[in-house]
Please model this.
Amino acid sequence: MPAILETRNLTKVFYRGSLLARDRIVAVDNVSFQMKRGEVFTLAGESGCGKTTVARMILGFEHPTSGEIVYENNEAKKNEKVWFNQRIQAVFQNPFETFNPLRKVEGYLFETVRNYRLASDRSAAEKLINSKLEAVGLSFSEVQGRYPSEFSGGQLQRISIARSLLVDPSLLIADEPVSMVDASIRMSIVNLFKHLRDELNMGILYITHDLATAYYLNGQIAVMFRGNTMEMGPVQQVLMNPLHPYTQLLRESIPEADPAKKWQGRISIAETEQEEYLREGCKFAGRCPQVMEICKKQVPDIVSIDGVQVKCHLYSGTKGRQKEVS
Ligand SMILES: Nc1ncnc2c1ncn2[C@@H]1O[C@H](COP(=O)(O)OP(=O)(O)OP(=O)(O)O)[C@@H](O)[C@H]1O
Ligand SMILES: [Mg+2]
Model:
């Protein structure tokens, strides 16, 4: 099956600090991956590893410094905004920020129908909106006449997904879509993604801290650290038998229910983030339990082992699985 999205050596450089003392941060460093229709591709990794920057480049909010993004086997071209918006839709972390509290929620849905000329009159529009709301477990009568404050975060996230479904996209980009939603209804949103994948054959780029939901959604995963893809491959394989010491560490740390805290345990959100971004060699060398001298000096190559790509000196020169990591 052809890829619906491919990134090739996608790179984004940011400069931070003053003009005289500015740091060059490679927030996304030669990231290459492919997504297929009907598949979930997860981008995972701790805060500040470059996940949102990847998503923003795919959505055209940010220009890549280098590398390319290929959509449905076509190079992304300028002036194809309408085509683009109909193929790729996004759902963001905080549903309360998506909707203006003073505006009725249905207004957003009708606006999308109007913008894309999806219906010829009001009753056709209502019918279309109702069908998309039903796809996410709601209905037009539940939404009609109501303001954002009258819904829960989970309901608003569903409405936001229904709105993106209006244009029948082939790819949904969901950046931390459940982290602000109550833990009790988180799974229902994750199940909704499963439904969109299976029933509508959509591709879903799922960005998360939560490896449990990534595991549940299956598909492929790329584990990022300071702009780099450390390990990439089928979710079950990567999470059940992680090759990279970072993936192993990530799997052991438990994400907190409280999104403000995000992580507890062995990974703390780093004041060392800047230091790690500026580090030569492997970005993870400063925290890696299996660090070697070479890791501090030389960036590891990506090695392919049993369908998993791993960027780690432990596997340099390996052609097959010669090293089992417990
Ligand atoms: N516009 C910008 N200017 C400068 N630096 C930026 C900009 N956007 C992001 N960064 C930096 O790039 C790095 C990656 O940020 P990004 O938001 O992509 O991470 P993330 O993985 O999405 O994190 P989180 O899980 O917290 O959402 C961070 O160090 C961030 O501070
Ligand atoms: Mg982010």
Q: What stands out?
A: Residues 183-200 form the longest helix (18 residues). Residues 51-52, 175 surround magnesium ion (ligand 2) (CB under 6 Å). The chain has one domain: 3-244. DSSP finds 13 helices and twelve strands in the chain.
